[in-house]
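ok, trying the design again with the full structure, not the truncated one.
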């Protein structure tokens, strides 16, 4: 690898697997890739120094006012349970998860950290949850080009209690900038309509290691990302009635 360049000492297999799931392939193919990736996923993200689960859990815990042990959380696109592990360390105990990949859910189940896990392809089908059921909803790592569309935001809000929190992350690397702009426009529209209030948008320079030179932030060998925290407004919008 080029000094300070990419590949950044990452094994080629890791680079290839990461590139494959971000390549914007059709949904069935992408879910199949995630199923196949489940076995290597945690080693790969460790190699990537993927910090989003830690950063998201820390941000949510910072915003969350109440005793955490009783709070009901939904971990959307939960993968193998990396976010659950971080939330658990911060005192959250009532965790449910959904993911579009059966292979990932199987790994998540083996952690023993979730009360309930369900298969759900976000953007295609509604979340398997009642309205206003959760104190907080997290979507870490799945809001990106060729992954979960930004049109899912109202569905995330639907299952969140009034006054509840939503913790979302996205990447700021070049190939995700168009998606990020769309996402931020959608976040802003919901805020203008009085659906939720932005509490935090934290830019993080070292989000994870870049898998190519083009994606790296100013040659650092890393890509950057953002953690957003929103709070659902406690009073429903009268116009919606």
């Amino acid at each position: 690898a080029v000094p300070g360049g990419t590949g950044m000492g990452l094994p080629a297999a890791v680079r290839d697997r990461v590139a494959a799931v971000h390549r914007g392939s059709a949904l069935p193919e992408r879910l199949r890739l995630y199923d196949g990736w489940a076995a290597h996923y945690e080693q790969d993200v460790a190699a990537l120094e993927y910090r989003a689960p830690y950063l998201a859990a820390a941000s949510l815990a910072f915003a969350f006012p109440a005793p955490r042990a009783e709070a009901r959380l939904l971990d959307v696109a939960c993968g193998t349970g990396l976010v659950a592990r971080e939330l658990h360390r911060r005192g959250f105990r009532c965790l449910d998860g959904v993911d579009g990949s059966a292979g990932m859910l199987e790994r998540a189940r083996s952690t023993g950290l979730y009360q309930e896990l369900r298969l759900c392809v976000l953007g295609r089908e509604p979340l398997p949850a009642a309205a206003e059921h959760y104190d907080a909803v997290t979507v870490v790592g799945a809001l990106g080009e060729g992954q979960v569309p930004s049109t899912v935001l109202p569905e995330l809000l639907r299952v969140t209690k009034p006054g509840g929190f939503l913790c979302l992350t996205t990447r700021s690397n070049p190939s995700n900038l168009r998606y990020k702009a769309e996402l931020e426009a959608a976040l802003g529209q919901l805020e203008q309509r009085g659906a939720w209030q932005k509490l935090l948008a934290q830019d993080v320079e070292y989000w994870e290691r870049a898998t190519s030179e083009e994606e790296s932030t100013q040659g650092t060998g890393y890509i950057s990302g953002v953690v957003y925290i929103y709070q659902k407004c406690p009073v429903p919008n009268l116009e919606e009635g």
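Keeping the full-length input from now on. Strands lie at 72-76, 94-99, 116-119, 134-139, 160-171, 196-209, 222-232.
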